[in-house]
Amino acid sequence: MKIPTSSVRKAPYLFRTGFGVELHRFDPFNSAQGIYFDMELGKNFTFGFSSVQTADSTAPALLGKTGYTPPVEFGFHLQQRVYTYNNVSLSLGLQDIVFQNAESSGGGLSLDPEQLSFFVVVSSEKELGKYHLNTFMGFGSGGFAPTDTITASTEESNTPSETGTTTNEGTKSGVFMGVIMNTPYLNKWGGIDIVGEFDGTGINVGLRIPLTSDYRLNLGFTHIEKLPDWKSRYWEGHPGVTLGFDMAVPRGIKTVPSGFGGPSPFPGGQLKLPATGQFESLSSSMDSTLSMADFAVHTVRDSMMMLKNEMRNLMVQLASMEQQSQFLEDSLLSMKLSRNVDEKNMNEAMRHLSKSLRYFYAGDYRAALQEVESALDLNPNMALAYARRGSIYYKLGDIQRATINWNLALRMDPEYDDVRNILKALHENRLKSTSIVEE
């Protein structure tokens, strides 16, 4: 946002330009606005230019009432990357070569030496999964010095010359540091950047949101540590809300990717002339439209590959669903067969119980017991069969086995009142053979 940065990589754009607004107050309204331009020249040298309409620095109560017109500033930025090692780079530079168009200079331009800043900045870049982290630390003079200037004006003051200023100046040098984290959100356009920095005088935070691959919307807050004093006073480091927009023109390409694995049609940045066998050199600053078209072709190819993978995944899912459907059909058929078998067994068991009842009334208890055993072999969960077997054992004089079978019948069917009454009578020693009634 406000501090110089460095990178081991060459800038991916020919030049970048944009504008920004910094809002200092809303009532009364006070803001600063400006435009900027920067580009990386040969041999790792960067040049930048900006023009700023500064904010009104009079007291808050007098904003817009004194007729004071804030000066226009024209600034230059020069920077040279002098050393790189792996992911670390070192740059030197000169920032804020500011010329002011102020009334005190008769409307001409005058250099402001207090803002002139020499600096050294060290950068480190790291990949954290899908995130790219740049950290910066530097030392500078002039504008990077810690200062806090308070301007006080009285209601009777009508001109800036009558304004009293109390300045508490620190050293004319200071340190600055910052961090930029590139996130995978909106990755197809470069990703959203999260920015945080200490610019020597305060803490600034912001977001750089890509609108396309070449255009970005910039949002942020400057000097957030002073937000509680937003309306109480005005100084050079007053907190503000920033809004900006920039455009980057992509670099031309020397070679064009082959596209589908074949050799490049432009080897070594050269174009083969038809029917001659000779090559014509291409400019390293090829029209950005061709670069964007190449990017679009690669994007379409990647999209086709993604669609192909999605179709393959859908085919696999369809095959899996067909297998699940077949499994459900087999399970349903198995349940039908099992139900049919259970119904057949139940019918067979009931026939055996019917025979056992006839044998029971005929006094053939052994034959009745054999029929009950056959019924339980077919369906071991019939409470009626256990009750019948208990009655048969009682008739045979085996009270213990009779009691066991009656209890089994009651466990399987707790609502079996006849069995409960028999067990109760047996417990009270009032059970007689004539009281046993079979269904």
What key attributes describe this structure?
Porin; Serine Threonine Protein Phosphatase 5, Tetratricopeptide repeat; 439 residues; alpha+beta
Notes on the protein architecture:
The chain has 439 residues and is an alpha+beta fold. Among the domains are: 203 residues, monomeric porin ompg (Porin); 88 residues, Tetratricopeptide repeat domain (Serine Threonine Protein Phosphatase 5, Tetratricopeptide repeat, Alpha Horseshoe), CATH 1.25.40. Helices cover 29% and strands 34% of the residues. The longest helix is centred in the last third of the chain and has 75 residues. 21% of the residues are buried.
Layout of helices and strands, plus pairs?
Blueprint: E1 13-26, E2 29-41, E3 45-53, E4 72-85, E5 88-101, E6 109-111, E7 117-128, E8 131-141, E9 147-152, E10 164-169, E11 173-182, E12 193-198, E13 203-210, E14 215-222, E15 240-250, E16 270-272, E17 279-281, H1 288-362, H2 365-378, H3 383-395, H4 399-412, H5 417-427
Antiparallel strand pairs: 1-2, 1-15, 2-3, 3-4, 4-5, 5-6, 5-7, 7-8, 8-11, 9-10, 11-12, 12-13, 13-14, 14-15, 16-17
Helix pairs in contact: 1-2, 2-3, 3-4, 4-5
